[in-house]
Specification:
94 residues, globular
Length: 94
């Protein structure tokens, strides 16, 4: 959890400063369509990894997917804390 918060701060910084040598800044510059394309690609790769039943491949691809989802959240000004709170509210009665 702590790492995701640190990553969120880094992504927010990249969104504001748009450093020229940053992959993330490039995604922010290209906009939501490019970010969504990456999420779709990574989602497909997660499915293939799961189908291949490769633990290491699944971990790698899910990490890529979570990263790109966080890019989207920062792009849309949604904090990871808001997502956590939504998940907690859905499961608070269990």
């Amino acid at each position: 959890m702590e790492f995701l918060l640190k990553l969120e701060k880094l992504l927010e910084e990249r969104k504001i400063n748009l450093p020229g040598n940053s992959y993330t800044a490039t995604l922010f510059k290209l906009g939501v369509d490019r970010i969504l394309k990456k999420i779709a690609e990574e989602s497909g790769e997660v499915l293939i990894a799961a189908k291949n039943d490769s633990r290491e491949e699944i971990i790698h691809e899910v990490a890529d997917l979570i990263f790109h989802l966080q890019v989207l959240l920062v792009y849309k000004n949604i904090s990871i804390q808001e997502i956590i709170e939504k998940l907690e509210s859905r499961h608070s009665s269990t």
